[in-house]
Design a protein that fits this description.
The chain is an alpha/beta fold. The chain has a domain of 166 residues: Rossmann fold, CATH 3.40.50.300. Helix content is 31%, strand content 24%. The protein contains eight helices and ten strands. A hairpin with a 2-residue loop joins strand 1 and strand 2. The C terminus is likely disordered.
Amino acid sequence: MQPPLLEVHDLHKRFGSVQALDGVGLSVHAGSVLALLGDNGAGKSTLVKIVSGVHSPDAGSVALDGSTVELSSPRQASGCGIETVYQDLALCENLSVTQNLFLGRERRHSGNRLKGWFLDRHAMRQEAERAFQVLGSRIPSLSSPVSSLSGGQRQAVAIARAIVWRSRLVMFDEPTAALGVEQTANVHQLIRRLRDQGVGVLLVTHNMVDVFALADRIVVLRRGKRIAELNPTECTPDDVVSAITGSSIAARES
């Protein structure tokens, strides 16, 4: 049996007097979507930042394909195939779509030493076009500044970065926040396409529509602890809310 793409085990993280994570464990398999839920302060963001290399855990381990790794920086996490799509998307609005996809990782001409000083704009444009073709998403123009795009199109740009860099695990922080119905449906389609291509997806959200439309499994955190793991085909939104709030002792494990 294949090991999980991502497995975190017994993670602990403290910030001063606040115990942000207290023995949390979970796993994400290739080609699946895990929804990570919890109220504000539950530890979701801290876990994501540990996996993305922003924070180091006080104790516990992170493993990729069954092998323990130390992710000491976002660049190292990216090198391992881990990308994060934050709620604010981290896009530069004054730059074009292609420039955003390759920001900080621009392609340069190969071959002679002189050409190596120049950006290979043609190669970057071709890779950007392929990424949007894979996603089945249309952007008015790859030369358009991001400031001219709709919210859903900006999400597509952020997700396309993961395709360009051949990411194996993509973590989403509230991907449909402030989007309309049509734009939300488009983002759902993009996430499903990632999953169908064998990418593991960790979805952090408060939106129950997102959860039950996309998730294969649900993990609930409360006050830094893992409270429940639920199967969305065997529970209701009320069951999930009960686990999040602690209003029911009978949060079911599956």
